[in-house]
Write a structure and sequence with these properties.
The structure is a single chain. The protein has a domain of 291 residues: Outer membrane efflux proteins (OEP). It contains 13 helices and 7 strands. Strands 1, 2, 3, 5 and 6 form a 5-stranded antiparallel sheet that branches. Helix 5 packs antiparallel against helix 7, helix 7 packs antiparallel against helix 13 and helix 12 runs antiparallel to helix 13. The N and C termini lie far apart (94 Å).
């Protein structure tokens, strides 16, 4: 009979443990139990046309220390779920009696006990979900950091390319000025020109030399910043290739919809909301009790006193097995109610934060779409009209200066027009490429692969 009761108690104990055990994750949203998909930033990099830029961005993604630290934090966050779903550590007790209590069946010598705290039904599963949602938040934040990094690196790379273009333009302008300065000196020495023309041209050459020094300094500074992003503190200044300027037809409304589906910040916001909702449920579970179960085994010696030896009692010297159970009493209702209300307010805050983020993303996509379109129109205007007109004006000024109908000031003005036209072209292309990079970061995808995008007909 005793063994039968003991077995029944052990079966009840196992059933109770199974009831409070956490879930295996099968009831969680699929996006939380599955591993993270491919990187959005990596897919954007793969679809870039410039190979040199792709290689640099791949180095940024693989070698940047700040990103590596964020990825380590994400992996650490993923390890919180196994900790959250684990039961509290059991407690083993050992009691030795200095003065053994004397019972009817003999003196007690030693007691060994085991106890286990059991959170209320469903609490461990909710804690696990909180940890999983928290890990999803961190993973999404890491992806947002990747997007930010490659956008910053692209901006630096394009600006390095701009400095290279400005240097080329300035060197061509200087070569023209040097040629005309030689012509002016020759005319002055033959009595057909003035010393003032020579001085003006020489002063302009000096100004271009100063501009070249400024370009060189800016070029070195930008290279150092880009090398820092790819964890290369020592490196020669980059010779950025001229990046192609793809001609996209940009639909702001379609891009907004894509951004609301792809942006990792919104994924993080959804995970925060889900986490806050689970925390609210967990706070409500605080009104339900927790449990404690235990088992103790006490060693009992046979009676050695005279009555016990003469007439041993039934069960003389039998050891004692004791089952224990306990329950917490959640009686402090004000504290529990405050905890629930706090969780609800936190949930409201996460939902409002997502609404604010949606508005920011929609506004940013609209502004960047318009900015990219305007930059592309500016490129066409400068390329088709301004550069052609400036080159024609320079040819006319050269001819007039050679025959003596125009002076050095007229020639310098024409050279400046060509310089400013080519500079405007370089800056317009830079603005357009930067706008596209920022737009891809704002959308969360490559413009060359999203289905709502079409290349414009030439």
């Amino acid at each position: 009979m005793f063994l039968r009761q003991e077995c029944l108690l052990w079966v009840a104990l196992v059933a109770l443990l199974a009831a409070v055990a956490p879930s295996d994750g099968s009831d969680l949203p699929q996006d939380l139990t599955a591993s993270a998909g491919g990187s959005i930033a990596a897919r954007i990099v793969e679809n870039l046309d410039a190979q040199a830029l792709r290689e640099i961005l791949e180095e940024v993604l693989s070698r940047n220390p700040g990103l590596a630290a964020a990825e380590a934090r994400a992996r650490a966050a993923g390890l919180r779920a196994p900790q959250a779903r684990a039961l509290p550590d059991p407690v083993v007790n050992l009691a030795a009696f200095a003065a053994s209590p004397e019972t009817r069946t003999g003196p007690q010598r030693l007691s060994v006990g085991f106890s286990q705290q059991l959170p209320g039904l469903g609490k461990l599963a909710l804690r696990e979900q909180v940890a999983l949602h928290g890990a999803a938040v961190v993973r999404s934040e890491v992806e947002a950091q990747r997007l930010k990094l490659i956008t910053e690196a692209r901006h630096l790379y394009y600006e390095i390319g701009l400095q290279v273009r400005l240097r080329e333009i300035s060197e061509r302008s200087r070569a023209h000025l040097v040629h005309h300065e030689e012509v002016s000196r020759s005319r002055y020495s033959s009595g057909g020109g003035s010393a003032q023309d020579v001085v003006k041209l020489q002063a302009e050459i000096t100004r271009v030399d100063v501009d070249l020094l400024d370009i060189e300094a800016r070029w070195v500074s930008l290279t150092a910043r880009l090398n820092l992003l790819r964890n290369q503190t020592k490196g020669d200044p980059l010779q950025a290739e001229r990046s192609p300027t793809p001609d996209f037809v940009l639909n702001a409304q379609a891009l907004r919809k894509i951004a609301l589906r792809l942006r990792p910040e919104l994924t993080a916001a959804d995970a925060r909301i889900a986490r806050a909702r689970v925390l609210t449920r967990l706070a409500e579970k605080g009104r339900r009790p927790n449990f404690k179960i235990g088992l103790s085994y006490t060693f009992v010696d046979p009676r050695d006193d005279a009555p016990g030896r003469l007439l041993p009692p039934e069960g003389n010297g039998d050891d004692i097995i004791e089952f224990q159970g306990g329950i917490t009493l959640p009686v402090w209702r004000k504290s529990l109610t405050a905890g629930v209300e706090e969780a609800i307010e936190h949930q409201n805050a996460t939902e409002e934060a997502k609404r604010h983020l949606v508005n920011e993303i929609e506004a940013a996509v609209g502004d960047l779409t318009q900015g990219a379109s305007l930059a592309r129109r500016q490129i066409r205007l400068v390329e088709d009209l301004l550069i052609v007109q400036a080159e024609e004006a320079l040819d006319s000024a050269r001819a007039g200066y050679i025959v003596g109908t125009l002076n050095a000031l007229d020639l310098l003005h024409a050279v400046h027009m060509v310089f400013e036209a080519h500079t405007a072209m370089a800056r317009a292309e830079f603005d357009y490429l930067v706008a596209l990079a920022q737009l891809e970061a704002a959308v969360g995808g490559s413009l060359s692969t999203i289905t709502t995008r079409e290349r414009a007909e030439p």
